[in-house]
Amino acid sequence: MSAKRSDGRSLVDGKRVNSFTNSEEKAVGLTEVVPFLLETRLRELGGRFEGGPEWQPFAVRDGNLITGQNPMSSELVARRVIDALETQEVA
């Protein structure tokens, strides 16, 4: 995850974010398979990680950054994207 803002900071630095949690990764037995744990990496990059209950839909929106926790979160993520598009000001 090397996306950076124009000031050189990580794209997620200071932003509310979510992803597959470390505990969910452990539950499916992939902690030794994946190159890094996404929750841990987001925290290292300065993200303000917010996790929901395991295996439940959970999504976070911080401005135009919309993240979901797991596959069950896809509908919530889609709703947040629609909300973002509907509230976006037209220039």
Short description:
With 91 residues, the protein is of the alpha+beta class.
What does this structure look like?
The chain is of the alpha+beta class and 91 residues long. It has one domain (19-87). The chain is 30% helix and 13% strand. The chain is built from three helices and four strands, in the order E-H-H-E-E-E-H. The strands form two sheets. It has a two-stranded parallel ribbon with strand order 1-2. The chain has a two-stranded antiparallel sheet with strand order 3-4.
Main features:
91 residues; alpha+beta; two-stranded parallel sheet; flat
Helicity, in percent?
Answer: 25-40%
Secondary structural class: alpha+beta
Question: What integer is the average pLDDT?
Answer: 93
Please give the largest β-sheet.
2 strands, parallel
Rg, rounded, reads: 14 Å
In total, the number of domains comes to 1
Ranges with pLDDT <50 over ≥5 residues?
none
Termini, distance in Å?
31 Å
Tally the beta strands. Answer: 4
